[in-house]
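Now for a specimen:

…
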Amino acid sequence: MYAIIADSGKQFKVQEGQQLAIDYRQTHVGDKLTFENVLCISSEKGIQLGSPTVDGAAVEAEVLGVSQGPKLVVQKLRRRKNSRRKTGHRQLYTKVRIDKITA
């Protein structure tokens, strides 16, 4: 059984027990999240497609913690002397574990 959910402009294919990194949210470890924008559910009965979402469907997840993505280097160079700028960025993510998919 799997589901396709939409969260913060992205779509994820999730299964029960799967760990997932979503955009950062200010939550504590052990909190429960509910994703209600379920676009598709596949089960033993078949596939349910929503238009745009499946009515009454939800995906429940538990927050595992906060992690950081890879470091991105932003470098700006121009052809003049002393016109170099080098900065970096690391995006924050919230790690969740999918507990339950309800149709």
Summary: Residues 2-102 form one domain. The chain has a mean pLDDT of 93.
